[in-house]
Amino acid sequence: DSGVTQTPKHLITATGQRVTLRCSPRSGDLSVYWYQQSLDQGLQFLIHYYNGEERAKGNILERFSAQQFPDLHSELNLSSLELGDSALYFCASSVAGQSYGYTFGSGTRLTVV
Amino acid sequence: GENVEQHPSTLSVQEGDSAVIKCTYSDSASNYFPWYKQELGKGPQLIIDIRSNVGEKKDQRIAVTLNKTAKHFSLHITETQPEDSAVYFCAANGRGGSQGNLIFGKGTKLSVKP
Known about the structure:
The structure holds two protein chains of two kinds. Chain A has no helices and eleven strands. By secondary structure, chain A is an all-beta fold. In chain A, strands 2, 4, 5, 6, 9, 10 and 11 form a seven-stranded mixed β-sheet that branches. The termini of chain A are far apart. Helices cover 0% and strands 55% of the residues of chain B. Chain B has no helices and eleven strands.
């Protein structure tokens, strides 16, 4: 157990729907990073939050949004889902705002049908 | 934008042989280079990392080397074992080293045959 908790582990939904993925960072970590992993694109950085504030954005679609709450857990919201959004979504956490010592959760597998 | 290229995409070795995976990065200001191992159904796990002020780092059977001039770094696994079979990812910190996010290579699937 890495200490980073992601729920749910699996999610199957229809095109056009909206889902929310949840991540609880390791105790004491202030940063949460979201990544999308698909077969042909590898691990793609989506967004980074540090202590409740957005720090950096990667290739995140406008249909996707995220936030980090006062208790430091984070949610990734995916809307108007398309077949191509099917992927593994990982979150990672680290103590500070830098990338040293990323710890990943076990991911949420999203299948859009 | 920043880019990390990783080779080979697949690697098959006999148990006991060595395995080498190579990566190049584009941002000359990157200063942190971790390697992750991902087993089936699990999230990536950090196995070793190196910072730009060091040229080589070893941890038992794994080692990483860094050439900042050439902007490439490599993972070396010696005396491979079947449990080393996994997908390995290299990464570099993005946007001049000041940002928190890591840019990942596309991964190398390592198979170690008994």
